[in-house]
Design a protein that fits this description.
Order of helices and strands: HHHHHH
Largest sheet: none
Helix content: over 70%
Shape: flat
Number of helices: 6
């Protein structure tokens, strides 16, 4: 079995070697054929290129020949055209010369004609100027005659006009004097009438001032009566109700010493004692005089008091005017509470409780 395998292996190797040699031989044959074909193609290509060069050379020869023939024909054509152009130019020059000669003759004739017309025109103008001069001399002579006649006529008219004006001026002077006298009388009448009207106006103003003063006094009396009535009503209410509420009264209810007299004596002493806690050396009378007198004279209290009167009682037109004038003087907007300027609108109804200005 080993021998068979070895023999088989050797046979395979020999077969492979034979195949390799066969392939190598075929390859060499292919290479030889390829080299031969390439050499044949190169020879063919050389012949083809040589034939192509020959054709190109022949084409160039033919082209040069055709170019020479064309150039000769073109040259001949140009020479013929130049000859014809020369003939045309000669003909044109001849015509231009003839035309110039005709134009020169025409210009000469026109110049002579214009000269003739100018001479005729100058002659006509000279004749016209002479005729005009003669006419002007005749017209000037006529004008002088008319001027002399007109001057004589004007002298006569001036003489008549002067006489008429003298007569008219005398009449107008009389009329002017009469008018001046009448004007002075009218001025005097107007002056007397003006003085009378001024006197009436002054008397009327005096009566109005007196009447306004009486109205103001009446209004002031009404205000005083109203204040007195309000104060009496306030004292009555304090006497009726405040005594019962002693110890619970808010600050500022008692405004002056007169209101304090409404309360019993022990309440008065208690009230005055409460005001002398910080001043042991002062008497009750001195304390009362110190605080109540300041309240009575206080401007703020007076303004608040007047405000309540205006709220509680309807105002008259005179009071409204006085209040508006006072507001304007104090730079306060109308319709606000006087003295406060807080922007609060005026409301109806009295307020019996005043804001206290005391230091306690």
């Amino acid at each position: 079995a080993v021998d068979d395998a070895t023999a088989q292996l050797i046979a395979d190797l020999e077969k492979k070697e034979l195949d390799r040699l066969e392939k190598q031989k075929n390859l060499q044959q292919f290479i030889s054929d390829y080299i031969k074909q390439r050499n044949d193609y190169r020879e063919y290509d050389k012949k083809r290129i040589a034939a192509e060069d020959e054709r190109i050379h022949q084409y160039q020869i033919d082209k040069d020949k055709r170019d020479a023939e064309n150039e000769a024909a073109l040259k001949k054509k140009k020479e013929e055209e130049a000859r014809k152009c020369a003939q045309v130019f000669d003909h044109i020059d001849k015509e231009l010369k003839e035309k110039e000669e005709l134009e020169m003759l025409q210009e000469q004739l026109d110049f002579e004609e214009n000269e003739r017309k100018a001479r005729e025109k100058d002659q006509l103008e000279a004749e016209k100027a002479l005729k005009t001069k003669v006419q002007l001399m005749e017209a000037q002579e006529d004008w002088r005659k008319q001027k002399a006649q007109q001057k004589a006529k004007e002298v006569e008219e001036d003489k008549k006009l002067k006489e008429q004006m003298v007569k008219t001026f005398n009449e107008e002077e009389v009329v002017i004097k009469l008018k001046e006298l009448e004007r002075k009388e009218k001025i005097a009448l107007h002056m007397r009438e003006a003085e009378r009207l001024i006197a009436i106006k002054k008397e009327k103003e005096s009566l109005e001032i007196l009447h306004a003063k009486q109205l103001w006094e009446e209004e002031q009396q009404k205000i005083r009566d109203r204040r007195r009535a309000i104060q009496e009503e306030r004292l009555r209410l304090l006497k009726l109700h405040a005594v019962k509420l002693w110890g619970y009264l808010p600050k500022g209810v008692i405004m002056n010493e007169e209101e304090l007299q409404v309360f019993p004596e022990e309440m008065q002493k208690e009230f005055l004692a409460s005001k002398t806690m910080n001043d042991k050396t002062s008497t009750n009378a001195a304390i009362a005089q110190k605080f109540f007198k300041d309240d009575i004279d206080n401007d703020e209290y007076q303004r608040l008091y007047a405000r309540d009167i205006r709220r509680f009682f309807p105002e008259t037109d005179l009071q409204k005017q006085q209040q508006q004038q006072q507001d304007q003087n104090n730079n306060r907007p109308p319709g606000l509470i006087p003295g406060l300027a807080t922007g609060e609108n005026v409301k109806a109804g009295p307020k019996w409780r005043y804001k206290s200005t005391r230091p306690w």
